[in-house]
Amino acid sequence: MTEFRAQMQPVLAVERPLMKTLVAEYLATTADLDRKERLNQDRRKQFFLPHFQHLTGITRAWIVSQCVMEVSRQVYDQLEAATPDADKISCDDGWLPLVDRFLIVGHKQPGFVLKSAGEKWGGLELRYRCDPVGLEACRAAEKEAFVASIETCEKCGAPGRLRGKTQWRKTLCDVHADNRYDD
Asked: What number of CA atoms fall less than 13 Å from residue 161's CA on the CB side?
């Protein structure tokens, strides 16, 4: 068990301040529910913060779940930001210049992280996260990339058009469309 605790030290270092914040927010939110003097907010903080074992099982479970979600989100965000953008792109070579132009605009915005770029229903689909300050610029660049994608062959980048009569859709030039048997 001591080896497990040693491995958990980085998680606990992140968890402790978050736990205090979550408990403080919980107590502030529920302070109006109990009107008895013995349960006022200051006394509750003095009682609950140092002694989590006195919390009811439901309250303790809620605090732990909130903390786990916050820690998981932070770890996931760090991993996502560390993943190179090239690993998140799943479209053919013809659309790579469109994605590159979008990324140039996106990386200038605060908090920008590309989640994925790929083809959906014959057009370029871009998934990303951005701070509200830069969201308008990202959306404009996304729209520009999408409009260009439905006029550009996904395979080679030559002028193309959206093809397909069933649920299969692809934007291709005449050369690459001739190679398809299901159009």
From this structure: 6
CA–CA separation, 25 vs 44, rounded Å? 12
Per-10-residue mean pLDDT for the chain, 183 residues long?
A: 65 70 66 52 54 60 70 68 69 85 87 84 86 88 90 85 78 77 49
Q: What stretch of H or E contains 48?
A: helix 41-48
**Would strands 113-120 and 123-129 be described as parallel, antiparallel, or unpaired?**
antiparallel
**Of the candidates 151, 181, 149, which has an alpha carbon nearest to the alpha carbon of residue 164?**
181
Give the max Cα distance, the chain.
80
Its pTM stands at: 0.54
Residue 120 bridge partners (DSSP): 123
